[in-house]
């Protein structure tokens, strides 16, 4: 399976690709039925520096790939982003953090769903401003419809903190943390299949 985002935040292409065994990330990208010229890419081979390749599993970013790296897994998803403008300059006062759409089950545990992405954390920015910037990038309107929680080490379930407006994400998180964005209807849900609203099925590779 392959996903493509033209802005680094919103996925506009999500489908299965029939690919030869040991195809590289770039080989698979070239099979996508996308008009890349629309996004100011006239040649994929000459635009590698504008693209980010990632492995997605269970609605979370697992690792980063190079364009010439073989993508052979049948259980993971290849994600390709056009690197957003605000990601092109990461200085000592900023870093990228993984963000996931999430839901909270009746046991109060957070699970990822939908499409993950990277978000720029700015030093000393109050979270009231951070979430406005984030929701604007996601094209979401009412911030009161969402809850934001940070998982400090990105892996340990239960190590999540609800973020207050006056807090600064740069003080309580790091590049290994995960920021969860949870819609109000996805809190304390009883349906364990809610995470499959936006299905994330594995890539099927044929010999």
- The proportion of strand residues reads 35-45%
Count of alpha and pi helical runs: 3
Shape: globular
C-alpha end-to-end distance: 15 Å
Indicate the radius of gyration in whole angstroms: 17 Å
Main sheet record? 5 strands, mixed
Helix content: 10-25%
Q: Strands of the biggest beta sheet: in what spatial order? A: 2-1-5-3-4
Average pLDDT score: 87
H/E element order: EEHEEEEEHEEHE
Query: What class do helices, strands and sheet pairing give?
Result: mainly beta
Low-confidence stretches: 192-207
- The protein's oligomeric status is single chain
Number of DSSP E strands = 10
Describe the structure.
By secondary structure, the chain is mainly beta. 10% of the residues lie in helices and 36% in strands. The strands form 2 sheets. The protein has a 5-stranded mixed beta sheet. It contains 3 helices and 10 strands.
Question: What are the key terms here?
Answer:
disordered C terminus; 10% helix; 5-stranded mixed sheet; 207 residues; 3 helices; single chain; mainly beta; 10 strands
Question: What layout of secondary structure does this protein have?
Answer:
Elements: E1 2-5, E2 11-15, H1 25-30, E3 51-57, E4 60-65, E5 77-82, E6 94-105, E7 110-122, H2 127-137, E8 146-151, E9 160-162, H3 169-172, E10 178-189
Could you write a compact summary of the structure shown?
This protein is mostly beta strands and 207 residues long. It has three helices and ten strands; from the N terminus they run ββαβββββαββαβ.
């Amino acid at each position: 399976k392959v996903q493509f985002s033209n802005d680094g935040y919103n996925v506009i292409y999500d489908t299965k690709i029939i690919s030869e065994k040991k195809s590289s990330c770039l080989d698979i990208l070239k099979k996508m039925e996308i008009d890349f010229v629309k996004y100011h890419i006239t040649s994929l081979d000459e635009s590698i520096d504008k693209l980010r390749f990632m492995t997605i599993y269970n609605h979370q970013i697992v690792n980063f790939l190079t364009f010439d790296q073989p993508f052979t897994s049948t259980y993971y998803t290849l994600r390709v982003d056009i690197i957003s403008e605000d990601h092109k300059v990461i200085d000592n006062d900023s870093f990228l953090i993984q963000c996931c759409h999430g839901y909270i089950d009746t046991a109060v545990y957070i699970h990822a769903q939908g499409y993950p992405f990277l978000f720029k954390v700015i030093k000393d920015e109050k979270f009231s401003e951070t979430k406005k910037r984030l929701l604007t990038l996601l094209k979401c309107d009412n911030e009161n419809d969402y809850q934001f929680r940070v998982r400090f080490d990105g892996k340990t379930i239960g190590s999540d903190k609800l973020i207050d407006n006056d807090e600064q994400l740069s003080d309580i998180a790091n590049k290994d943390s995960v920021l969860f964005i949870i819609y109000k209807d996805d809190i304390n849900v009883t349906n364990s299949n809610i995470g499959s609203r936006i299905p994330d099925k594995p890539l099927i590779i044929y010999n």
